[in-house]
Design brief:
392 residues, alpha+beta, four-stranded mixed sheet, binds acetoacetyl-coenzyme A
């Protein structure tokens, strides 16, 4: 069935609450994150102190109701905050995004009341870190073909989990993980189940931290499960519904990644405009040259188009129902825009853009992941085209 294109509103209204959040997050990000971002990129340390502060501000559980320890706000608030944090540092925004969408969104939507109380509240406050684990060494884009297994024990009390998961964002530090693994391999994607696993239990083994091109302060690793005993009450949703849960969660996650991509694009763009005004060559500011003006015009246009697609996805999500198409379009366009803009901004800066003295090279390296994680640009195109062609 071809999904009907939904009405595309061109404006979005910010409430006083949104404006106040935006100002608070902008001030925090510029004062507390911008000055340390270079250091954490250089060392690859996990910025636990700022993450805790972000938790105190409610940024680790923006859409979680206040009674569960969150900020009780909406997806628009999440996106606005994400843009500001990513503008200061993509690594911080990655940690924030995994806690908010990949980890908490699934728990909020599919968790029992007990699971929500136990596993959302400490993560929404920033006291604990959450992660989401779908990918395996031999199963990335083709997410349904996983080799890890969970087998119910004879007493029917625990699933025994074995296998290796890879590219787990926050894997080296996560306290809790929403894990997808195969409970019935004969059923393909309908044999996958989601579990909430605790890191401090026997059989949970963290692999080595991945050395990465960008988002170096956001820790990524393999996770190994060696006869890990997961109680049946920690099944998230129903047995066999894990793949749909994983995909539903990724729809929400992809809006967050789109916002993150827009944030880093804005940071690079603003630096480029300032530089084009100040840097002089051939007797005038380089912004006077048409080749620089063309870059500025294209960067600005793509940034605003990405913002509209993100707002479109936010509105589709807030309207209810599936918003797979809107989320994929926003993620695809915003991440491609982030690459375009960070590259052009670096180019406008010339040699200075290539130097570690300015953050341009970090923006460029950090932006690159947005075209890969939570579904590559190729997967987003596949998702969009399949929906339009009625192939799913
Ligand atoms: N919402 C709800 N249900 C969905 C869905 C969605 N968004 N997408 C698919 N489904 C359902 C389908 O309707 C279908 O259900 P039925 O069988 O009942 O009809 C079922 O799931 C299977 O769907 P497909 O046949 O389309 O599945 P597929 O195997 O062809 O794969 C895919 C589809 C879109 C390519 C999917 O595998 C995919 O998104 N791959 C990319 C995975 C990805 O993003 N990985 C990143 C992991 S997270 C990460 O990056 C690490 C990190 O820590 C940040």
């Amino acid at each position: 069935m071809v999904l009907q294109a939904k009405e595309t509103p061109l404006t979005i209204t910010l409430t006083e609450e949104h404006e106040a959040l935006l100002q608070a997050v902008r001030n925090f990000a510029q004062k507390e994150i911008v000055p340390i971002a270079g250091h954490y990129d250089e060392t690859g340390e996990f910025p636990m102190e700022t993450i805790r502060k972000m938790g105190e501000m409610g940024l680790m559980g923006i859409e979680v109701p206040e009674e569960l320890g969150g900020a009780g706000m909406d997806t628009l608030a999440y996106v606005l905050a994400m843009i500001e944090i990513a503008k200061a540092d993509v690594s911080h925004s990655t940690i924030m995004s995994v806690n908010n969408s990949l980890y908490q969104h699934g728990l909020m939507k599919f968790g029992t009341e007990e699971q929500k109380k136990k596993y959302i509240t400490p993560v929404a406050s920033g006291e604990k870190i959450g992660a989401y684990s779908l990918t395996e060494p031999m199963s990335g884009s083709d997410a349904a073909t996983m080799a890890s297994r969970a087998v119910l024990n004879d007493a029917g009390t625990h699933y025994i989990i074995n296998g290796t998961k890879s590219w787990v964002t926050s894997g080296p530090v996560a306290d809790y993980v929403v894990l997808f693994t195969m409970t019935d391999p004969d059923k393909g994607n309908k044999g996958i189940t989601a579990f909430i696993v605790e890191a401090d239990k026997p059989g949970f083994i963290r692999g080595k931290k991945e050395p990465k091109l960008g988002i170096r302060a956001s820790a990524t690793s393999e996770l190994m499960f060696d006869n890990y005993e997961c109680p049946v009450e920690n099944v998230l949703g129903n047995v066999g519904e894990g793949f749909k849960i994983a995909m539903t969660v990724l729809d929400a996650g992809r809006i967050g990644i789109a916002a993150q991509a827009l944030g880093v694009a804005e940071a690079a763009y603003e630096a480029a405009v300032q530089y084009a005004r100040e840097r002089r060559a051939f007797g005038g500011p380089i912004g006077g040259f048409q080749m620089i003006q063309q870059k500025i015009a294209d960067m600005k246009t793509r940034i605003e188009a990405a913002r509209m697609l993100i707002y479109n996805a936010v509105l589709a999500k807030q309207r209810g129902g599936r918003y797979t198409l809107e989320a994929s379009m926003a993620k695809l366009f915003a991440s491609e825009t982030a690459m375009f803009v960070t590259d052009e901004a670096l180019q406008i800066h010339g040699g200075m853009g290539y130097s570690k003295e300015l953050p341009l090279e970090r923006y460029y390296r950090d932006a690159r992941i947005t075209r890969i994680y939570e579904g590559t640009s190729e997967i987003q195109r596949m998702v969009i085209a399949r929906q339009e062609l009625g192939l799913r």
